[in-house]
């Protein structure tokens, strides 16, 4: 397993809310820090802001090199100058979710204790982390924290909230909780509730973490350990659900790793005795192990537990007798629901449930299923129809919102042949 | 824009809420938004058309007349439009009911199976007629519920719908001269276009005084 360096100090930009937040569970969490990044320029009217919500294991490093992993931003291909979410036009905000581990308050944050008040520097190294005592949070709590950030930035109304997967859940909670603050909403590859199957997958992930001997009841920092194996297994399992059978077949098929093959037998049927029975034989195994080991370098196990639980609680119908349209009654938000044909984690059928609920609420809704064999992760990958849909929807919404220059710019883009085939 | 779409647009009061079922490439809803200030939305069954429409900034959902209308609340639109699709839906009568449940007015166009050319071809050849409008063989056609203009009027009577306006147009969408005679229209009109309301609704004269308030707002809180 790779060395873990999540404790390596990286300074994240953040906003601090000393009064904290009242959570759905009834606890007041204070102080709350929200780490965020912004891209583009806020217009003088402060009306061109787009909040992008990240998925389970994403973070605020949307469109720039990640300071911990050194890799490109997770939505670099979608957000930037001239890209579908065009930072020449929009002011884009992305924050690390509450409960996360990339600078926002979460289980790894110091727990405010009775022993001495924390000073402003917040760097007290002796402070004990929250760990498993971090209060249970919901997607709505994440959204409340984002709302505090948005207001802190002096923005009273977001032009759009955009996000995929768990980010899409946040989009829906935004539209439900702060309807007057969201002009347009783009929930992608998501659902208004977390399905039994998805709760089941999350539970397997959690059990993998608990089963790691380095778990130490969740207080692994005390012994300088990290439940890396458990977290890696959780990630490997989850990663399978983000892909599709077609995608796995296309990428790996039944290919065997070169070094696993006995030198004299170039065919794929290897004699079991000549190999380590449980070594990395198939390429797909090697790929998953890499996914697992690179993940533990940037993610905290307690954050993973906290956030997966928040997803499990997601159910927009809970307070409306099971009617997912209830939270959207009277909404004026323009919705663009997008699903992917091969996504079996958040299948199109669940997007359709959402669309019908929005129709019941007489909402202005667009709904597209993008043809793709890339599974749930398609929203992070190269899908030209998806890009066109996001760009076009935002342009159309900007026109309806009366954003300056929107028509001219949209036509300019069309003239360049970027939008239209 | 097709001429029959222009005729449909001419039936729609500016500033109203319109649902176009089978919105295709979104030409009509785009036109209604840009030139008439309507809140126009679409439903389209072909995903390629939906993607193109949304990529042009138009509010279109993937769905179809048979399965998705039931999810809209009563009176959520002023006009519900069904272009050249009635003959292809599974349950035309139910679709019309849904249209007049969610909309104050229904605008319906369909190809007329009573056209003289079809009658003549069936009479002389004894085989399913094949024309410019009805151009797929019987085993492959999506048009599973063809009807004539008189059939449609009979259904409207049976269901208690009021015909506020109607016209017969030829395939290119030109307005045809047999507007006053149903029998002539049924013989010479290739396409039929109807503006329907419920029998208890207003008279022809005040149909343009459409209520633009949003009934769904009343349910809020």
Can you offer a commentary on this structure?
The complex is a heterodimer of chains A (421) and B (221). Chain A is an alpha/beta fold. Chain A has two domains: 14-197 and 319-415, 3-Layer(aba) Sandwich (Rossmann fold), CATH 3.40.50.1820; 214-305, Rna Polymerase Sigma Factor, Chain: A. Chain A contains ten helices and twelve strands. In chain A, strand 11 (334-340), helix 8 (348-360) and strand 12 (364-370) form a beta-alpha-beta unit. The model of chain A is unreliable at 114-119, 265-274 and 406-421 (pLDDT under 50). By secondary structure, chain B is α/β, with parallel strands linked by helices. Chain B has a single domain, classed as Rossmann fold. Chain B has nine helices and seven strands, in the order H-E-H-E-H-E-H-E-H-E-H-H-E-H-E-H. Chain B is globular, with a radius of gyration of 17 Å. Chain B starts with a helix and ends with a helix. The A-B interface holds A 329-330, 334, 336-337, 355-357, 359-362, 364-371, 385, 388-389, 391-393, 395-397, 399, 410, 419 and B 39, 41, 47, 50-51, 53-63, 68, 71-73, 76, 214, 216-217, 219-221.
Q: Which band does the percent of strand residues of chain B land in? A: 15-25%
Strand order of the largest sheet of chain A: 1-4-8-5-9-10-11-12
Gross morphology of chain B is globular
CATH C-level name of chain B = Alpha Beta
Structural class label of chain A: alpha/beta
Give helix % range of chain B: 25-40%
Q: Architecture of the largest domain in chain A in CATH?
A: 3-Layer(aba) Sandwich
Largest sheet of chain B: 7 strands, mixed
* Shape assignment of chain A: globular
The strand line-up of the biggest sheet of chain B is 3-2-1-4-5-7-6
> What is the end-to-end distance of chain B?
42 Å
Helical amount of chain A? 25-40%
Number of beta-strand segments of chain A = 12
Residues in β-strands, percent of chain A: 5-15%
